[in-house]
Amino acid sequence: MQTLHASKCGLSTAQLPSYILDVIDALTKAGFEAYIVGGGVRDLMLGLNPKDFDAVTNATPAQVKEVFGRRCRIIGRRFELAHVYSGRELVEVATFRAPPKKAVTSASGMILRDNNWGTIEQDFARRDFSINAMYYQPRKGIVLDFCHAIDDIKNKTLRLLGDPTLRFEEDPVRMLRTLRFAAKLNFSIAPDILEVFTPEMTQLLRDISPHRLYDESQKLFTMGHLNRVLPMLIDFDIWRQLFADIDPEISTFIERAAINTDQRIQIGKTINPAFFYAVLLWKPFLERCEFYANKGMVAAEARAQAGLDVLKRQATRTIIPRFAETFIREVWEMQTRLLSPKPQQIQALSTHARFRAGFDFLLLREKSGDQSTQGMGTWWDSYQLMSTDEKERAISQYNRQRAKSRRKAPTGDVVEAKSVSVEIEPLVKETAPRSRRERSRDRSKPERPVQMVTSGGSEIRADHPILKRKRVKRDLNQVVFGPTQ
Ligand code: ATP
Ligand code: MG
After folding, report:
1. From the CB of 309, is ligand 1 less than 6 Å away?
2. Is residue 247 annotated as a catalytic residue, yes or no?
3. The model's pTM
């Protein structure tokens, strides 16, 4: 073990937010050891902006609770952890961990439960990469480096602690982490990792719960280097484990969406992590729509059913939370609405909660060479910048063109201009609650008070049938969930 001077590693307390210093100070004052560890230290050393700071200590979670009282909550089953609220921030405070006493592992060697507190050396050995295993004590101005991690920082190398085969077997998610950090930090992967990172090894990801894989996929999508990691997911055969029904190829559409996501993150714009799923699953969705259309189903029904099918299949790999599922289906449904809107609904559509995401999606499709958008991406793009008068003129021009093209081709597919209402019908019908817990939560919800909903000058009551969403029963029998951890 070597003790490094923090200042020589480019670290200083001035870079640290007060919330993490407060936690370190309170633990130290109570007589415990406390360090900042993990991504926070690594990123600061690399001159990057850390996402957050994690603390580690020799105090047990119960002792941490004694120090922070009501500001602390103990969470976790596999790993018991303390969550400490410091100001408006939440700091994860972990206790030094030892190897599990009696290994509670799965058949493939995966660790399922371990709450054994240990020494700092033991804690170090359990971490994944050398660069994630440096312990920074900001008040003492030192960094404890047990494995010459500083050299890996300098050489930009990702090195697993211990034997890579064993480390991947213990926790196959480390394969995803390898690609994430290699892409995020632009590091090379150590040769001994590359040697064992085979398609057979990636099969172990089948043992990981779809919930955890969804979380990991979100980290991949939102780290700011999605475009760099996508080809790696294909090269290392991780893609097939995460996205079973999506062809392992990066279409122009996917690539543009990835670049767009990275750019948004770079300039600090928010992104909806489900958006990229909508992009990835767009092709399987269209194929499924065609499948139902060929069976003679009407277009709207085919889209609804195709959406449910595609998401249900994806959920066998990475579970998609309900809110994300609804978002994805709404973005897809918006494509039809934006492609041939009823003229009298154009204004209402442009203020719809899902307009922005639907429009971004449409424009991305168009810019990637998808001619089926018929230039409507650009049309909406200009529409938004127009004055009220210009908008009116644009709508009447659109109306005339639409009437002309309808006369030419009277059997339009997706246009259903029956009503003259300016209300937008719900984009998707809500599905039935998935779990028993969700169902009982739904039952126990107090009835919503009847409110007046105002839109475009016309008022409708909140109990109006237009706002009542019909529940579609999902057939969950075909969903195969992996074992949860
Ligand atoms: P990020 O910038 O994504 O937060 P991070 O390195 O901080 O990166 P976390 O998932 O926040 O990653 O984990 C914090 C630390 O916990 C890691 O740096 C690593 O030391 C340890 N760790 C996390 N996941 C694992 C794992 N699967 N196996 C071993 N150690 C892990
Ligand atoms: Mg972290």
Report:
1. no
2. no
3. 0.82
